[in-house]
Design goal:
alpha/beta; eight-stranded mixed β-sheet; 10 helices; 8 strands
Length: 309
């Protein structure tokens, strides 16, 4: 059963749209999904249906400025001020709190993809206690100097044009090189997956083709910087199981190299159960890749081995 609902954002004005996919019979575990940039939680429905068949309840919200979590079209790609990153994290935590109140005695997992992976990495530094495991998907690592430059450019653009300004220059800096490996490419989004039907659906959907505001870009750069901060990583519970997973052809993870840096950082922090899985030839959206059935099975198997409350 699919249940859609709303709750008030931490920005105190936006109604956050959320979905829960509820299995028939007993609920064996919960998975909360943090979706990526320029998409929405409904894109995870196929994966959610698979897990529902295994007795998992799957839930997730549209982040601020995404999907149905907007008050008008000007809000698409906009978070909040003065700290949009904090609001998005708080909205993730609100959904977890609401869900655990309804299902208090089952294992609870968190999955974050792409931008959602950086949010999830921040989240487990602050609220990792009580989770049965975290899946960090489609993530990467960025030099601090690059992130600081991005934050500075966003502040500068906001100063002259306002926080809702959509900078093609900053957008190109963030994404301009992602399709390079796949040229000559059929579309500008070929870096997402080899599944052409998924690509065509993505590029035809206005909820996926907008440009981030400088406000949201600044928040995302801050999120990545915080997620990589060693002092923050040290706050993750040492007994929290973490799976870092990506495709070897994912430019966000620098084709596996950035993903391994994340894995190594968690290992160095003394986290006891850290795993890494890289799918050969898969691009950014491994849940939408041509081998996604295998990915589904592998993620399920990992969670099945960590069923703790």
């Amino acid at each position: 059963m699919k249940n859609e609902f709303y709750y008030l954002s931490a920005d105190q004005k936006t109604r956050i749209h959320a979905i829960e996919w509820i299995p028939q019979g007993d609920i064996r575990a919960v998975l909360q999904i943090c979706h990526g940039m320029c998409e929405f939680i409904g894109r995870y429905e196929e994966f959610a249906h698979f897990l529902c068949e295994q007795g998992y309840l799957v839930t997730g919200n549209d982040h601020l400025g995404h999907g149905a979590s907007i008050t008008d079209e000007e809000d698409r790609g906009y978070f909040a001020e003065p700290d949009g990153n904090a609001c998005v994290l708080a909205d993730i935590h609100t959904l977890r709190t609401l869900t655990q109140e309804k299902y208090p005695h089952v294992p609870y997992f968190l999955l974050g993809h792409s931008m959602g992976s950086f949010l999830a990495r921040q989240y487990i530094c602050r609220h990792g206690a009580g989770l049965s495991g975290a899946i960090i998907m489609g993530t990467g690592s960025q030099p601090g100097m690059i992130l600081n430059l991005g934050i500075f450019l966003c502040r500068l653009s906001a100063l002259f044009h306002g926080s809702r300004y959509r900078s093609h220059f900053i957008n190109n800096l963030a994404f301009g090189g992602y399709n390079k490996k796949f040229e000559p490419a059929r579309t500008p989004s070929d870096w997402l997956t080899k599944d052409e039907a998924i690509i065509d659906s993505y590029i035809s959907n206005p909820s996926c083709t907008f440009i981030f505001t400088v406000n949201a870009y600044q928040s995302m750069f801050r999120s990545i910087r915080s997620a990589q901060d060693g002092s923050q990583i040290a706050r993750i519970p040492k007994d929290l199981p973490i799976l870092v997973v990506s495709g070897t052809d994912d430019p966000v993870g620098n084709f596996g190299r950035g993903v391994r840096q994340v894995y190594d950082a968690y290992r160095s922090a003394g986290i006891q159960d850290v795993s890494i899985s890289l799918y050969d030839g898969d691009r950014h959206e491994i849940l939408n890749e041509t081998d996604r059935e295998q990915v589904y099975q592998d993620l399920l198997a990992w969670m099945e081995g960590r069923q703790k409350i």
